[in-house]
Amino acid sequence: MSTAVPPPPTPASDVRVVCVVYHPGDELAMFARTLAAASATPAELVIVDNGSDPTVARAVADEFGARLVATGSNLGYGGGANLGAAGAEARWIVVANSDIEWQPGSLDDLVAAAEAAPTAGSVGPALLNTDGTVYPSARELPSLTQGAGHALFVKVWPGNPWTRRYQAHQQNAGGQRPAGWLSGACLLLRREAFEAVGGFDDGYFMFFEDVDLGERLGRAGWINLYVPQVQVTHVGGTSWRAKPAPMISAHHASAARYVHRRYPRWYQWPVRQAAVLGLRLRERSELRTAR
After folding, report:
1. Is the pLDDT of residue 170 over 70?
2. pTM of the prediction?
3. Cα(170)–Cα(97) distance, rounded to whole angstroms?
4. Tens digit of pLDDT for each residue in 219-250?
5. Residue 233: per-residue pLDDT
6. What end-to-end distance do the CA atoms of the chain give, in Å?
7. Where are the domains of the chain?
8. CATH number 3.40.640.10 is the correct assignment for the domain at 15-137+172-236
9. What percent of the chain has pLDDT over 90?
10. Are the beta carbons of 81 and 18 closer than 8 angstroms?
11. Dist. CA 134–CA 115, nearest whole Å
12. Which residue blocks in the chain are alpha helix, DSSP H?
């Protein structure tokens, strides 16, 4: 009498993908569907729902075998990502927006690039807009004077030298290279590095949490590696389009917080105040336009 040999246990995925959502729509199912084709080995998917009604997120989690974390309150993007990453045993953590559409094999390619660069704490793909153009997702950290000049003059003097330098740093020409920071819309993180710097600073409700993380990773000796040969499509922020005014205010509040925290020294006070003033003026202008 023969006995069947039981199949070996399924190994734990080496990648945990954290998708933070807030009242998601159809894009979340597309995210999960394309993610399934992005790797030969299924990734562990954790959906963190910051909204008040997790119906859509629960349906997607059930369909694709994901784990749903309903926060019960809006923790913000960084706070939600930290919650989704907590307790991970996977070597790699991906934080991604729900409006990302993965290319076949793109997650495997992203991990391969990270494994080939042992000092990379974060790795980011090229983010394609829906028209095929490349979104500037790999940037240098803005200096205080550059940020102040850009914030003060971009609306009234678009061609000012500070804005030109700031926008020049946004260009994604060239191949694989280190960057000051990478967009949190789709970001592969080495768990060791992510945990060593304390994850995202959840004091940033939305925006600039990725800038801050990139700066802290760099300070800790890790590099932020841009790998444009790996591409994903970023459909665009549905929450931003639905509620532009709160998003505008959140963006400028986070920018001001970053300026204060990155440049706290007493002798930086005049330029720091100029940057914050410029942010306030720009926020008012954008809010008037949004109404």
Report:
1. no
2. 0.88
3. 20
4. 999 999 999 999 999 997 544 555 578 788 88
5. 97
6. 78
7. 15-137+172-236, 143-167+243-291
8. no
9. 62
10. yes
11. 24
12. 27-36, 55-64, 76-85, 106-115, 144-153, 161-168, 191-196, 209-219, 238-242, 244-262, 269-290
